[in-house]
Sequence to fold (298 residues):
Amino acid sequence: MTAEDHDFSHLDRFGRAAASVSRNPRLAVNIVLGAAVVLAWLLLGAVAIRGAESRVPGIDAPGDTMLRYLPGLPLPDLLERFFSLCLAPAPLDGGVGAQAGALIVMWFLMAVATMLPSAGPMIRTYCEIADTARIKGEAVVHPLILVAGYLSVWLAASAVFAALTLIVHAFASSVQMLDPVVGATGAAALLVAGLYQFSGLKEACLTKCKSPFSILFSNWSARPGRIFRLGMEQGVWCLGCCWALMLVMFAVGVMNVFWLALIGLFTLIEKQTAGRLPTRIAGAILLVWATALLVVSA
Fold:
């Protein structure tokens, strides 16, 4: 590439900024992913506020009192419809299919908000390998292809979680779809999540998440399809590491943004910390919590 190819002086300020981003894949992926995470949290926060405002007194989820003090902003009809489908106690006019679709989107937003930040080390490692390859003159696949593969796994998982939400709600006594599930069902969710933290599968998946370099380097390719599949592989390891933690959301209210933020923060810390101490502490807390919930509901 010649010096003239780098000269964007003939463009306006916006054009120069766009050209600079297009030439820097790492900057582009940071901007796109940062915007996606912020947008996901904004939408989830709006759903949480709607849920807190409409929840029946006496079955408040943690943080509802604080959420009720936050202003509800006027939103487009499409978003209002989305919120209604997520919060409705039974399928609306659109039927169970529309409600299931809304729940899939909601769970996917939760995955983007909590799991995408913890995938930062994996994405950064890929960008570093890509920079080295680019310096050598080798073809490089844009990191957003890797991210797309990663998120495709969580999109599939979101469909499973949405189906589980419908099943749990069908047998639970909650009024709204996203109310906390109490009693034996809530305790079972916490018990499964707690026990999984001590499992060998959890340890194996967490190890892969902590050390993505060997997988990315050994499977390096200049073909977009292979990089997409590589992203899917990383997504599977992440899902294997974190799926049980998402079950906690059933016990605290699926759209509890405070617990969602806590899970996202824990996941980020867990993947950055050597050893398994945070994982075992979390597992012990969940098991004690499950036992206490069973005792209280007995």
About this structure: The mean pLDDT is 82. The radius of gyration is 21 Å. The CA atoms of residues 194 and 285 lie 7 Å apart.
